[in-house]
Amino acid sequence: MNKAREMTRREFLKVSGLMTSSAAIGLMPFLSGCGFPAAPEIDQDAFLVDGDHLIVRMDKTSLLSRVGDSAAVSMEEDDIHLIIVRIGEERYVVALNECPHREKRLGYDPGSEIFLCVTGKSEFKLDGSYLKGPVEAPLRIYKSTQEGKTLLIDLKTDKMSER
Q: Which of 55, 66, 105, 154 could bond 38 through an S-S bridge, CB–CB 3.0 to 4.6 Å?
């Protein structure tokens, strides 16, 4: 004798809605992993443009305090978009913060020491050379030197033009 009762339409909608919501919430971590986070922005009061140079005052930001840290500098009025990576105690890599594919921002993965497009589709070595992605173009890398508590970035001369 089968005593299973039939479900009303209202009960069915309630149960199926709960199951759909649970499945969507369970998949959220996997869906958000499709890209890579962009580098955090350095505050405007920590840098300035002086002629052909960008000067970053390292004592005004904690974003680059450890080897492996990365940070972005953006100045819309001067069309400056850079990503800075600290690769040593006094060594930095500075790149144009635009992926050659669709000009999206970049992040940095210190574990693999590569620049990654926020879309998750393109990867570049620290020297700017292409690793993988839809466009086989390098990143523009700028010369930089640390002088005391300032990082001096040459905006006019990039390392790619020296090759």
A: 105
Rounded mean pLDDT, 81-95: 96
Say if CB 104 and CB 114 are below 8 A apart. no
Concatenate the DSSP letters of all residues of 82-139 into one string. EEEEEEETTEEEEEESS-TTT---EEEETTTTEEEETTSS-EE-TTS-EEESSS--PP
**Total tally of structural domains belonging to the chain:** 1
Instruction: Show Cβ contacts of residue 31 under 8 Å, excluding neighbours closer than 6 positions.
Output: none
**What is the average pLDDT across 45-61?**
95
Residue 3 forms part of a structural domain? no
Q: What is the CATH number of the domain that holds 135?
A: 2.102.10.10
To the nearest whole number, what is the mean pLDDT of the chain? Answer: 84
